[in-house]
Specification:
The chain is an alpha+beta fold. The protein has one domain: Pnp Oxidase, Chain A. 21% of the residues lie in helices and 32% in strands. The chain contains 4 helices and 7 strands. It has a 4-stranded antiparallel beta sheet with strand order 3-4-7-6, with helices on one face. Strands 2-1-5 form a 3-stranded antiparallel beta sheet, covered by helices on one side. It is globular and about 35 Å long.
Amino acid sequence: MQLSEDMLALLQKPSTCYLATLSTTARRRVTQTWVDTDGEHVIINSVQDHVKTRNIERDRAWPSPSPTGEPLAYFQVRGRVVEVTTDARRTHRHAGQKYLGKPYPWFAAATRYE
């Protein structure tokens, strides 16, 4: 799926993103997470040993970013997980600055969607 210009603009800002995942027993989970883009993929930040990361690794995740301050507006991403990595310097290195206004002290995993 190609990301629209509106979606790319949203992903480049600090925005709210809810991530739906599905466990091996079909239990649904929704968590809030940081979201970013490399211009081609949606990038989600997570911690490697979290349940949502294990669900993501099985290609069972659907991000839904929303503009901050506009709770009724959102994008729904449908695609597949193309990579899970712990190399945050390459994938999501600016997330702390974007959301916290300063570098984030540590990273664990990031996920790319297409």
